[in-house]
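FAQ
Q: What does a multi-component entry look like?
A: The components come first, one per line:
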Amino acid sequence: MKMHRIPAHVFNLDYTLRCGQVFRWQKRGGEWMGVVKDSVISVKQKGDVLVAKSNLAAEEIVSYFRLEDDMENIYKHIGKDKLMKKVIAKYRGLRLIRQDPWECLVSYVCSRNAPIKKIKSVIFNLSKNFGNVIKSDGHIEYTFPEPDMVAEATLDKLGICGFRYGKKQAREILEIAKLVGGNNFDLERLKKYSYLDAKEELMTLRGVGHKVADCVLLFSLDKLEAFPIDVHIRRFMRREYFQDENISDDKIRELAREYFGKYAGYAQEYLFYHERSGGEK
DNA sequence: TCCCAGGTAACAT
DNA sequence: ATGTTACATGGG
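Then the predicted structure of the entire assembly, as tokens:
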């Protein structure tokens, strides 16, 4: 275990890990514990320094938390109006996380029409049943299973993870695991594609629609213009930008990408957290 | 009992 | 091309 002290300006660890983009981090006594790339990592924030205990290299931690993103520049792009500026000020320092594409894909396929608590339990069960055990400081953690480890599972064994739509979703996960594990679907390659081309590829997978595709693109494939539309964002956008009109997701997506521009995804995550927190303050 | 939850695919206009 | 519905389930 190495100890890292990483400079982190315009960064808020709590907002970043609490806003709902990741599902496997837990806060225990002032420290956040997570599993990144087969290693346990614990992090805490001391002012403008991110203190991390991990076997990961410092660069990997910087990349994971997207500490290279120039937040002031991003705020300049997405701070289009009074409301947006207010939300930015409220959650200043919230950063997108650069997740592993495979874990991100599975997580959001399982997320559909489910409360976040449910998603967390499904992801935990997948890790516990199919991932590897890691022991650290007396705690037992699990890696997120590789595609092959899921692909070899039976429908019944997958089923005990408690998917939202039962065997229907277990079948989707199995099918995706076989494609990704068998090198018939290269997630990493999508990073080189344009946003729209990568999205089209992702949506050929059964179980992946606009929302899941946009989440995977935004949270793991560096497509910061992606603007995932879920129930919360839909409600927010209709209320704040369309006078409560029952506008379609296509229209919302069109407006959001045009209005917020190449960092629309950052705007989305701030608004998502804001709306889900009830917009208080 | 009804409504909601980080939706998608199949089906109907 | 756009609108509607089945799917499946624990919690408020």
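Q: Is there any commentary attached?
A: Sometimes. For this entry: DSSP finds 14 helices and seven strands in chain A.
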